TrEMBL record:
Keywords: 2Fe-2S, Dioxygenase, Iron, Iron-sulfur, Metal-binding, Oxidoreductase
Encoding gene (name): bnzC
Molecular function via GO: 2 iron, 2 sulfur cluster binding; dioxygenase activity; metal ion binding; monooxygenase activity; oxidoreductase activity, acting on paired donors, with incorporation or reduction of molecular oxygen
SUPFAM superfamilies the UniProt entry points to: ISP domain
PROSITE patterns documented for this protein: RIESKE
Protein name listed in UniProt: Benzene 1,2-dioxygenase system ferredoxin subunit
Gene3D superfamilies to which the protein is assigned, alphabetical: Rieske [2Fe-2S] iron-sulphur domain
Length: 109
């Protein structure tokens, strides 16, 4: 699989997330306040809730339903009730294009 264009970088709002789907994989794309674009699995591991509807603060994305916050860098939950991480995907910026390949997750070991 190859990387797919999911958004224009110029269309992303700081400290907010959008939900995209590539080949059935739901991904939350986030532009943090430092201008870094992150891509993590969009479904909260505590419940079947879209994380893109949540709240961005620093390098975290908080689920609006139950308050679990996930690290945008590692995908790990930072508080309960979630205890399982979400996948983190590599993001490529090519000019104004944000590209993601859902088959390529970051090696966090």
């Amino acid at each position: 699989m190859t990387a797919t264009r999911v958004a224009a970088l110029s269309a992303l709002e700081p400290d907010s997330a959008i939900r995209v789907e590539i080949d059935g994989v739901a991904i939350a794309v986030v532009l943090d306040s430092n201008g870094v674009v992150h891509a993590i699995g969009d479904t909260c591991t505590h419940g079947d809730i879209s994380l893109a509807d949540g709240f961005v603060e620093g390098e975290t994305l908080e689920c609006w339903a139950h308050g679990s916050a996930f690290s945008l860098c590692t995908g790990k939950p930072l508080n309960l009730p979630a205890y399982e991480p979400v996948p983190v995907y590599e993001v490529v910026i090519d000019g104004d294009d944000v590209l993601i390949d859902p088959a390529v997750t970051k090696d966090l070991s």
